[in-house]
Batch of 2 targets.
Target 1
Amino acid sequence: MSLVNCKDCGKLQLKESWSREYCADCLQKRTKLSITIRGFLETHPKATILDVHRGTGIPLGKLLDYQREQREQAYT
Ligand SMILES: [Zn+2]
């Protein structure tokens, strides 16, 4: 086992397979975020990232992070 800094808040944590680069708190926040985004896209399938931002109030930076991660996951 090794120690890593959480990619989001920088908190030092044990690196375990389930936690990846985020601490438990941030992981939970991200899960909620992705549920909100997916829920919005289900009702607005043609929404752009700006529409999601306006509709959900999630900061654009977080949405771009989310989008990039989705893309990375799709390739792996
Ligand atoms: Zn964190």
Target 2
Amino acid sequence: MVSMFKRWLRGRLGISENADDDDADEDAATYGSLVRKGRHVALRAHVEANREAFQRWYADEEIASLLRHDLEPLSDWQSRGYFDSFVLPLSARGLCFAIHERKTKRLLGTTALTDKMRTGIGDSALFRIVIGEKDSWGRGYGTEATRLVLEEAFQVLGFSEVRLEVFGHNERALKAYERVGFRVTGEHSEWVPRRQINLRVIEMAIAADEFARHGEHLREGHRGPASYLLKGQREERKAARAAKRLRRAEKKARRFSHRSAAEVPDLPNPPSTTD
Ligand SMILES: CC(C)(COP(=O)(O)OP(=O)(O)OC[C@H]1O[C@@H](n2cnc3c(N)ncnc32)[C@H](O)[C@@H]1OP(=O)(O)O)[C@@H](O)C(=O)NCCC(=O)NCCS
């Protein structure tokens, strides 16, 4: 009876059948709402309880040597500040995700889309990922999590391109990114004064159509409730911004109304209710 009701409700809300079978309410409260899930890992919203693990990952020397441009681990207060002022707010906006193992729900890492910028083909975001639990490296989890983030970026968040930077010595990451379809777009070197070494930094990118072509033989991940919810909120914000622009333009037009018709600026289109 309950499952029939859930199926009916999903139908009414336009949520796919597969969206929430491992995202019961109690899971969302404990582990964070489900954003998207693949075969082995799930992306979830970050919750405060993730802070302790996050701080442990960022205090690790080996992880720092693969991740940070100064190659130094973060201190306790630095990682706390990073988590509280960057990770949690970005996660609430649907741009940063906790990576969990699906079977055990264990928290494994974190991933994010940051540094949005406008390019010739549309909006581009910078991809970041850390599988912080090192016993989970090399099991395909990072590759799958990367693919799930790209699905979210292109299918839900409206990005046209995702780019990244990876150190030349990070072979595991390079392999994972190539497998997902990223191509090398350039490279540069960075001087690390404390270590007196030059870091080789490889730049990679993937466009939405490249990802679609590359992944057409792969099984897609399933979206979770948080992905639908955040898309709704983004659309509401977009409509509110359009309405504000319209009000501003109308006000301006009223100021110009005593002038000749030719001098009145064009009004933007009213906000669409269907997009
Ligand atoms: C980079 C990272 C996300 C990759 O995730 P992962 O789950 O470990 O990687 P996967 O198992 O999905 O894929 C790793 C690939 O490297 C290969 N690999 C595994 N161990 C390797 C090693 N020691 N050296 C070289 N390649 C290795 C695997 O065979 C696999 O390639 P394949 O799919 O062609 O077989 C993860 O290791 C990580 O978070 N590392 C620390 C932080 C970091 O480097 N972040 C990225 C910054 S750009």
